């Protein structure tokens, strides 16, 4: 052989190879190398490859002090035995797998929901350095300069000039973008005419802050020109179908043509979502004066910082910034809020979209932990119950020579297989239940992140850990019993194992009671909100929205008289808003008890003289507006009781006749209206002024109906509307349905919470059933002896259930204070809330105990009715 043979592969081969085979195999390796030597490089690599191929069972030498390294046959046997045991006990296996899989699936579904809630706005590339401006509108002359206020005293809705001022003053500010609150528009295109809500004005720099999906058009130029509009994907499809809308024109409010310049899609997990945006230059062209008015509010302002900037530096200069750009800082202040806090952690008012509830998130996470804990307890209880029945099997195996190690491995493998089956079935349940969860929560819940390689590996690890944990009792406890005692029937389980099972039962009962108390409190609170006296009548009131259309406003008396012709119409009132709608604030000065003018910003209703009686509201002092008083439309004002207190008066009568100033009007307060909840009961009644509205400041009609066939009545009113105002579509809704929309999120939360609570109790019942099996099996001979001595079935069932009732009472003592603490925290989000009485806990306790006793009865009754001969025949 002319070429040198590499030595290190041969040395490695001689080290691992069985000495009996070294000489023959090494000779073959050298011969093959000699045949390949024409290409030395190839021959050397092929020799190395041959050596590594030989590193396999059958050739590797045995290690001293150990058995053969090939355990494949033994593991295969364990696997076969485990599968046979699972299949032989179909009912037991089904209960075990079902309980654990339902628990895991429920936990995963909650995680999907929570993951979506905490993911809001994270799609933005500059998420970590994006902030928004919060505005404080104080009382003129009564606020100390440079004083900071809590976030709850601020609102996101503010003025326009702060944006340009920040960009000029702070070098750390990279981009600023504003958009307004939404407006109602009448949009027409090729015969299609709809009232569209939610369209706002926006700066051309929106794309620099928010990373939306741009489907068509150039985001850099889409909002630069006046009379340009960008549409959401849904709105573009509504008007243009599958056609390209770019360059097309929409007729807005029957006056101006707006060019469509882009189509976008805002991700579902954004904290605001508008169907369309009009260029801010259009707004500036129409009303340039408000872009220098620091007291005018109609804008949301967002900004991004440069990469190395620090928001604390900006916050430290707020006082200097305001003194530079505002004439009077004694009534106005700002602070900054991170985009990361906008959805879940903001207490500011006047949000641009719906916000989440941090307490609900914490509650859902708690439910997920509870369900998973109950599922794991259930799994361990069932494994324990079954393991006792296999004590004789273990004893026989040990008698014929089986080592304890092999028995331990057998039980651990069998338990692990059950958990893997449960995890697999849980994945199927998640896939099937996911669409229903989306319906329950009313939003899209992405799941792509769940089925990733890393999460799959985590699931495998959790399944393996859970399998090893749940199989530890039969593996390590049952396997150490002495075969003689087991086969003679004289063995007993350890006191430690009994204590552990009692602790698990108490924990299971406690979690079930807490969940049922939570469900009862949630539904009691939701019922309380709907039944609470709002202070006005919202039933049988149809609201017709004409979106500030000036043609309807110009012929409002004719429209009202036409609708009043219908025999089912009792009253009609015009207003700017109705209860449950968006309301502005109005800077209002009223003479206080000292004779000075006190300035505040109460909410504002603009109404006519029919609004208060139509909604069944009550005037507690003074009078309502009336056409008999010509000055009411220009110099009169009504306030609510809370506003009376705000301006320093102790009784409603004292404010009557006091001078006021508001939005270029001056006059006297003529009446005090009794407080009513014009917003949801999450908030206390706010100060409010009810201003007489001329037709030009109204946008909707409230129509009081007296009908037994509302569909027919609304259809006939539609016809009358088309006669009186054919130029505007008939857009209507019932006020009670509109007002109750404020509670949709609460109702959805209640439904989701109750579903998962029921699932948790279901899983707990499976675990309780497993423990009942264990207990009755352990006391089988006692039952047989009692029956021989004449005990009735009822007596035996009572005896078997007594221990569980004691554990239930302990659990009740633990669960009540925890329930009170958790649910009181949740109720803090409501200004008007229930008081948790004893009946809530009694209901949860009786429900838990009743379900538990019914579950146990399936086994206890069967055991009590068994033939004592079958039980005692081995004695």
Written account of the structure:
The protein is of the alpha+beta class and 875 residues long. The protein folds into five domains: 1-70; 72-120 and 387-488, no CATH class; 127-341, no CATH class; 494-532 and 743-875, no CATH class; 541-742, no CATH class. 50% of the residues lie in helices and 16% in strands. Strands 14, 15, 16, 17, 18, 19, 20 and 21 form an eight-stranded mixed β-sheet that branches. A hairpin with a 2-residue loop joins β19 (659-662) and β20 (665-673). α1 (7-16) packs parallel to α3 (40-53), α18 (495-531) crosses α29 (793-827) and α18 (495-531) crosses α30 (838-864). The longest helix has 38 residues, at 404-441. Residues 64-70 have low confidence and may be disordered.
Overall mean pLDDT: 84
Strand content: 15-25%
Low-confidence stretches: 64-70
- How many angstroms separate the termini? 82 Å
How many structural domains? 5
Major beta sheet, specifics? 8 strands, mixed
Structural class by secondary-structure content = alpha+beta
Q: What value does the Rg take, in angstroms?
A: 38 Å
How many H/I helices? 31
- Helix proportion: 40-55%
Descriptive terms for the model:
31 helices, alpha+beta, 875 residues, 50% helix, 16% strand, six-stranded mixed barrel, eight-stranded mixed β-sheet, single chain
Condensed summary:
With 875 residues, this protein is an alpha+beta fold. It has 31 helices and 23 strands. The strands form four sheets. Strands 14, 15, 16, 17, 18, 19, 20 and 21 form an eight-stranded mixed beta sheet that branches. The protein has a six-stranded mixed barrel with strand order 3-4-9-6-8-7. Strands 2-10-1-11 form a four-stranded antiparallel beta sheet.
């Amino acid at each position: 052989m002319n070429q040198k043979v590499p030595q290190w592969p041969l040395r490695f081969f001689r080290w691992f190879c069985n000495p009996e085979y070294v000489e023959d195999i090494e000779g073959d390796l050298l011969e093959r190398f000699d045949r390949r030597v024409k290409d030395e490089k190839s021959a050397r690599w092929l020799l190395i490859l041959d050596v590594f191929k030989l590193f396999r069972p059958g050739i590797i030498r045995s290690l001293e002090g150990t058995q053969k390294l090939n355990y494949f046959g033994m593991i295969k046997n364990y696997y076969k035995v485990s599968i046979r045991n699972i299949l032989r006990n179909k009912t037991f296996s089904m209960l075990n797998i079902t309980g654990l899989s339902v628990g895991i699936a429920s936990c995963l579904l909650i995680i999907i929901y929570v993951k979506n809630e905490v993911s809001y706005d994270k799609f933005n590339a500059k998420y970590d350095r994006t902030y928004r401006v919060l505005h404080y509108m104080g009382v003129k002359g009564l606020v100390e300069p440079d004083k900071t206020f809590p976030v709850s005293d601020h609102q996101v809705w503010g003025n326009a000039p702060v944006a340009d001022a920040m960009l000029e003053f702070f070098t750390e500010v990279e981009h600023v973008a504003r958009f307004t609150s939404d407006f109602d528009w009448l949009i027409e295109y090729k015969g299609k005419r709809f009232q569209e809500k939610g369209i706002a004005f926006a700066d051309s720099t929106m794309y620099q802050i928010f990373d939306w999906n741009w489907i068509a058009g150039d985001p850099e130029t889409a909002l630069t020109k006046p009379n340009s509009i960008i549409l959401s994907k849904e709105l573009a499809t509504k008007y243009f179908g599958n056609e390209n809308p770019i360059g097309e024109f929409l007729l807005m409010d029957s006056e101006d043509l707006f060019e469509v310049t882009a189509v976008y899609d805002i991700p579902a997990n954004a904290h605001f979502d508008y169907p369309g945006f009009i260029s801010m230059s259009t707004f500036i062209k129409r009303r340039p004066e408000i872009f220098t008015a620091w007291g005018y509010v109609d804008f949301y302002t967002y900004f991004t910082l440069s990469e190395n900037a620090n928001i604390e530096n900006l916050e430290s200069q707020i006082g200097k910034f305001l003194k530079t750009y505002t004439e009077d800082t004694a009534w106005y202040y700002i602070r900054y809020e991170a985009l990361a806090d906008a959805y879940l952690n903001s207490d500011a008012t006047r949000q641009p979209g719906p916000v989440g509830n941090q307490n609900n998130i914490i509650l859902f996470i708690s439910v997920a932990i509870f369900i998973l804990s109950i599922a794991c307890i259930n799994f361990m209880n069932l494994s324990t119950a079954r393991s006792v029945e296999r004590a004789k099997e273990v004893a026989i195996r040990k008698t014929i020579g089986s080592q304890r190690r092999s028995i331990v491995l057998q039980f651990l493998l069998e338990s692990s297989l059950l958990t893997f089956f449960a995890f697999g079935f849980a994945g199927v349940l998640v896939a099937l239940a996911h669409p229903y969860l989306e319906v329950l929560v009313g939003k899209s819940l992405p799941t792509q992140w769940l089925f990733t390689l890393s999460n799959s590996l985590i699931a495998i690890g959790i399944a393996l850990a859970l399998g090893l944990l749940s199989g530890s009792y039969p593996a390590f406890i049952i396997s150490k019993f002495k075969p003689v005692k087991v086969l003679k029937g004289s063995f007993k389980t350890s006191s430690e194992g009994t204590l552990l099972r009692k602790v698990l039962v108490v924990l299971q009962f406690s979690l079930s009671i807490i969940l049922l108390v939570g469900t009862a409190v949630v539904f009691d609170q939701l019922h309380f909100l709907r039944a609470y006296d709002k202070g006005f009548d919202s039933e049988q009131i149809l609201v017709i929205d004409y979106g500030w259309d000036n043609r309807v406003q110009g012929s409002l008396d004719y429209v009202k008289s036409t609708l009043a012709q219908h025999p089912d119409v009792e009253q009609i009132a015009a207003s700017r808003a109705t209860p449950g709608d968006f309301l502005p604030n109005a800077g209002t000065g009223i003479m206080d008890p000292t004779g000075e003018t006190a300035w505040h910003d109460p909410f504002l209703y603009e109404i006519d003289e029919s609004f208060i009686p139509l909604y069944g509201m009550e005037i507690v002092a003074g009078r309502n507006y009336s056409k008999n008083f010509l000055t009411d439309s220009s110099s009169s004002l009504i306030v609510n009781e809370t506003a009376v207190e705000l301006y320093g008066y102790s009784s409603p009568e004292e404010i009557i006749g006091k001078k006021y100033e508001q939005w270029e009007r001056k006059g006297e307060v003529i009446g005090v209206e009794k407080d009513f909840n014009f917003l949801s009961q999450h908030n206390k009644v706010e100060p409010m002024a009810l201003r007489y509205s001329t037709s030009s400041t109204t946008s909707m009609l409230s129509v009081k109906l007296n009908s037994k066939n509302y569909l027919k009545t609304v259809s006939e009113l539609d016809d009358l509307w088309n006669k009186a105002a054919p130029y505007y579509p008939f857009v209507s809704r019932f006020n009670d349905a509109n007002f109750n929309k404020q509670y949709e999120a609460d109702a959805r939360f209640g439904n989701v919470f109750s579903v998962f609570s029921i699932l948790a109790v279901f899983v707990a019942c499976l675990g309780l059933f497993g423990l009942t099996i264990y207990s009755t099996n352990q006391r089988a001979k006692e039952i047989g002896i009692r029956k021989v001595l004449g005990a009735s079935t009822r007596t035996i069932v009572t005896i078997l259930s007594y221990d569980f009732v004691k554990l239930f009472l302990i659990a009740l003592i633990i669960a009540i204070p925890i329930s009170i603490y958790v649910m009181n925290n949740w109720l803090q989000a409501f200004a008007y809330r229930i008081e948790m009485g004893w009946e809530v806990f009694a209901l949860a306790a009786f429900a838990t105990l009743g379900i538990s006793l019914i579950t146990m009865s399936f086994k206890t009754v069967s055991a009590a009715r068994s033939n004592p001969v079958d039980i005692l025949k081995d004695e």
